[in-house]
Structure formats: C-alpha cells, structure tokens
Amino acid sequence: MFFLLIMKKFPGELGCIDVKIISRFHDGKLTVCHCSFGKYTKNFLLQDNSKGMGFGGSESSQSTIIFSPRVCNDVDLEVGNLIRIHPPWKEVQVGNDNIILCTYFSEILFPV
C-alpha cells in the first residue's frame, strides 16, 4: 500500500518507479537496499532539492527494497546507482516498515 502511494506521488514510466540506492548488502542470493524514491517526468529527472536529481529528502520517501537477481542478474546494484523497478512487485509490512520485493528492474543510464 505504501509503495502505491509513493508511486502516485512520484510517477514513473508505465507503472514503474525510480529509486536511488543509498546503501546495500547481500543476504544469500538477494540484494537488500535502502533506497530513496525519485521524481521522473518526460524522460528527465527533475531537480527539486539540495539532494539533487529529485532523490532523497524525507525518511517517508525512503524504503527497504529487496532485489532478486533471478531474472535481472546483469544490473549493477551499487550505492548511488539509479534503478527503475518494473511491475509486478510484492510489498510486505514488517513491524512499522514496508519492504518491497522485486524481480524486474533495470539501471537508469543518462545520456552524456
């Protein structure tokens, strides 16, 4: 539910949402990342605050995302990278935290 609210607040391309990886660690075959949600409009990220590129800001625009490399094993899930999450995904509430489980994702590359 939280993820759908964030998606409405920061709309992406065709039901996708863009995130920036703040931190990450490996847990078995999964990659667990703390990410901030970003704004995406007309193929360009908008600059809306001092964090730059429209990412960051309040804790409410950040979440834990677990990436499964089962399908998208060639995507670099490194700190600072921008990632587009494609549906379907699964949202799980653990205590007061919402965790997003996703299998389909791609790296956002900017033209030079």
Short description:
The chain has 112 residues and is mainly beta. 7% of the residues lie in helices and 39% in strands.
Described by the principal axes of the CA atoms, the overall outline is globular
Poorly predicted runs are 40-53
- The number of strands is 7
Strand order, sheet with most strands:
5-6-3-2-1-4-7
Distance N to C terminus:
36 Å
Measured by DSSP, the beta-strand proportion falls in 35-45%
Question: Could you describe the largest sheet, including whether it forms a barrel?
Answer: 7 strands, mixed
Description of the structure:
With 112 residues, the protein is mainly β. It has one helix spanning 2-9; strands spanning 17-27, 30-37, 62-67, 82-85, 89-94, 97-102, 105-107. It has a 7-stranded mixed sheet with strand order 5-6-3-2-1-4-7. Strand 1 and strand 2 form a beta hairpin. Residues 40-53 have low confidence and may be disordered.
Write the topology of this structure.
Blueprint: H1 2-9, E1 17-27, E2 30-37, E3 62-67, E4 82-85, E5 89-94, E6 97-102, E7 105-107
Parallel strand pairs: 3-6
Antiparallel strand pairs: 1-2, 1-4, 2-3, 4-7, 5-6
Can you give keywords for this protein?
112 residues; 7% helix; seven-stranded mixed β-sheet; mainly beta; 39% strand
